[in-house]
Specification:
The protein is an alpha/beta fold and 469 residues long. The protein is built from eleven helices and 27 strands. The protein has a domain of 289 residues. The radius of gyration is 22 Å and the shape is globular.
Length: 469
């Protein structure tokens, strides 16, 4: 029997099943004014949103594609369907009423079970539409609003949506923010009233089923003064031999003395271009916590940003990425220190194998009035063979003397000495490698929601082993 001697790619068999694309309504491929107007009409947009979409399209057409980072030459917008929905696209609050094929998809992904066991509310999006949304009665009775963004926009929270929608991420931010503004659909809206603590997490799950399609959900969360929330977001898609696109947008508003933990696991297939934008602003004494896992996609541009606007505001960012064969994951974070005595702490890990490429980019900006700012960035990269790549690209723009800023980066391979030591203690080479990778990722997995931590550890300890030949 030949010894197993390498670490496998992430096993995506759980996510790679697909449903036949039938009984759907979709717009034509490409991006034109006619298509944007068609989407707006389907959504029954209020006048301000219809105008916003057209303005975003103008910005998109004037904005160049990024000339840095991974290549996106394989992404042709002329071939992308920007809006697709099941013909039965009603949003349901009763799981039994969701169409059977869609329901089975989310059952296989474990969403209903997770809701029953450990979540205060769940939203499920399939292609371009929310198909299910529910929030526990006791949470709703606290005054917590958790619904799909479109219902909120058309209802009593319309003014709140108008005041916040794409204010943190304007269409002028970059080309794919403009694209999102033009064709967005689906997503969640959360509002937590002052002083309310949501004891158990809320979760949204996004599933892209159709080949050659894009998903453009918008998540808007407002955590008011002194409130506390943990929000979990997951997403996946089956693998096709043509490009899919994800260009969602997340805007998070953390009030005075409030706390928001935002955990997200992105497990897209390897034909996905993941060009997502996430941004948070934190008021005085507030705290933002990011927990981010990126295990899928062909190419990623993903840099969650936090603006520490208020005095004594804080952010913690914990992230892990895994790049296997054919993957180029360009990820990182940005933080802007504006208030006094603000603090940011960043801890990231990346794992590369089989020619996969990981790039970590960090941007720390300290404005001239941000006296007493503290920032610590710690990123570590592990390459499992001699054909993989890992780069760290830090940027620091410090405009205030009264600061404490530090950056540490470590890039390396699995030590042959460590493998030999473990094998001398009776551990197989396969197990030794998996143990080292698991230990490398341990402090990140501890921060993940329980079900995702278990999944990641299983991927490392059980699925990420195989044999040569």
């Amino acid at each position: 029997m030949q010894e197993k001697t390498y670490v496998e790619d992430v096993d995506r068999s759980l996510y790679d099943f697909r449903n036949e694309v039938k009984d759907v309504y979709k717009v034509d491929e490409g991006l034109t004014e006619e298509i944007v107007r068609q989407i707006s009409k389907e959504k029954n947009d209020p006048e301000w949103m219809a105008e916003f979409r057209l303005h975003s399209l103008e910005v998109y057409n004037k904005t160049p594609f990024p000339n840095w980072g991974p290549s996106i030459d394989g992404l042709n917008m002329d071939n992308i369907v920007t809006y697709i929905k099941p013909k039965d696209n009603k949003m349901h609050a009763d799981w039994d009423e969701v169409p059977e094929e869609i329901k089975n998809t989310f059952e296989r992904l474990g969403i209903p079970q997770a809701e029953r066991e450990s979540l205060a509310g769940v939203g499920a999006q399939y292609d371009s539409e929310l198909v299910y949304h529910n929030v526990k009665k006791e949470v709703a009775e606290q005054g917590v609003i958790y619904t799909d963004l479109e219902s909120a926009m058309h209802g009593e929270y319309g003014d709140m949506i108008k005041d916040h929608f794409m204010h943190l991420v304007p269409p002028t931010d970059h080309k794919f923010a403009a694209l999102h503004g033009a064709v967005w659909s689906g997503g969640s809206f959360v509002y937590v009233p002052p002083g309310v603590t949501v004891e158990i997490p809320l979760q949204s799950y996004f599933r892209l089923n159709a080949p050659g399609a894009g998903q453009f959900e918008h998540t808007l969360i407002i955590v008011d003064e002194g409130a506390d929330l943990h929000f979990i977001e997951g997403c996946s898609a089956p693998k096709y031999n043509i490009a899919n696109l994800h260009a969602g947008c997340v805007e998070l508003f953390v009030g005075k003395g409030a706390r928001l933990r935002y955990s997200t696991i992105e497990n897209w297939s390897k034909n996905m271009y993941n060009l997502n934008t996430k941004r948070a602003t934190v008021a005085e004494g507030g705290k933002m916590e990011w927990v981010s896992g990126s295990f899928g996609s062909h190419t990623s541009f993903l840099y969650p940003m936090t603006i520490l606007k208020g005095d004594n505001s804080k952010v913690e960012f914990t992230g892990i990425t895994f790049a296997g064969e054919g993957q180029d994951l360009d990820t990182g974070m940005k933080v802007v220190h504006s208030g006094k005595n603000t603090a940011s702490a960043v801890n990231t890990k990346s794992i590369s194998k089989s020619g996969g490429k990981n790039t970590f980019r960090s941007s720390v900006v300290v404005n001239k009035n941000a006296k007493g700012a503290k920032s610590s960035v710690d990123c570590a990269s592990l390459m499992l063979d001699n054909i993989s790549k890992s780069d760290t690209i830090p940027a620091m723009d410090v405009r205030c003397d009264d600061t404490d800023i530090g950056h540490e980066a470590k890039i390396g391979r699995i030590s042959d000495e460590a493998i030999f030591y473990l094998m001398s203690r009776g551990i197989s080479e396969e197990e030794a490698r998996a143990m080292i990778v698991s230990g490398f990722a341990d402090n990140v997995s501890k921060e993940l929601p329980l079900e995702y931590a278990l999944e990641m550890n299983n991927l490392i300890r059980l699925e990420m082993v195989g044999s040569i030949g």
